[in-house]
Amino acid sequence: MQEQPLVSVIMPAYNAEKYMEDAIQSVLVQDVPLELLIIDDCSTDATAEIAGKYADGKRVILLRNEKNQGVAESRNIGIRRAAGTYIAFLDADDWWAKGKLACQCRRLKETGRVLCCTGRELMNADGTSQGKVIGVPDEITYSMLLKTNRIPCSSVVVKAEAVRDFYMCHDELHEDYILWLRILKKYGAALGINEPFLKSRMSRGGKSRNKLKSAKMMFGSYRFVGLGVLQSCWYFLMYTLNGFLKYM
């Protein structure tokens, strides 16, 4: 019988045929009981066919949207279907080092925290390293997170119940950042593991790659979570400074 998953890995995919096998294989080598939920968001390339090679309806489950839903709702579809105690997010163009999930689940159990993230190594589109590692502090508080998003989405492992308190929303903003802020405000500080378990592919076309667009999305995210205009302006200045320092 299929072992009850400890972790449900949610992978939204849209026209991801170039990269997604690396992502899938990096999940399947993790040494914890898991399920992988791939949500194909009406891709027009071979994304569904590649995912279908791995899908067995048990450990790897392929879900196909009837119409394009966007990344936030595609992740929500996976969240609603997830059977694991924890939920992990992985974008289809990123991948993980072996041992990532086991390390995070162990530390979450030891500390009683609900959310854990890791450091990341920046990779070129072809999968080679850029030679840049972005670390994370041992603890990330709500106040720290307001100043800059220290939590890479593809590195997160989080208690399923915490995610289901809020779900993801607003694709036009930073939907993952909004979720982390809401979770930390309710449940307290996140745990950071300063190891580059996440290999983050800096592919062209990501919405955060357009700096002006990303800045507008960040300001909108502040307003959405309830900050006033002056507070939003202050934290936006902190975000801009920290963003500059992060990629130096």
Which properties best describe this structure?
248 residues, alpha/beta, 10-stranded mixed beta sheet, 9 helices, 10 strands
Evaluate the radius of gyration.
17 Å
The N- and C-terminal alpha carbons lie at a distance of 50 Å
**Percent helix range:** 25-40%
Number of DSSP helices?
9
Query: Which series of helices and strands comes N to C?
Result: EHEHEHEEHEEEHEHHEHH
**Global geometry:** globular
Beta-strand fraction estimate:
15-25%
What profile does the largest beta sheet have? Answer: 10 strands, mixed
| Weakly predicted, low-confidence segments | none
Overall mean pLDDT stands at: 93
Structural class per helix/strand content? alpha/beta
Question: Would you report the number of β strands?
Answer: 10
Textual characterization of the structure:
This protein is α/β, with parallel strands linked by helices and 248 residues long. It is built from 9 helices and 10 strands. Strands 1, 2, 3, 4, 5, 6, 7, 8, 9 and 10 form a 10-stranded mixed sheet that branches. Helix 8 packs across helix 9 (229-246). The N and C termini lie far apart (50 Å).
In short:
The chain is α/β, with parallel strands linked by helices. It has helices spanning 20-28, 47-54, 70-81, 100-111, 142-147, 160-163, 175-187, 211-224, 229-246; strands at 7-13, 34-40, 60-64, 86-89, 95-96, 115-123, 129-134, 139-140, 157-159, 190-201. The longest helix has 18 residues, at 229-246.
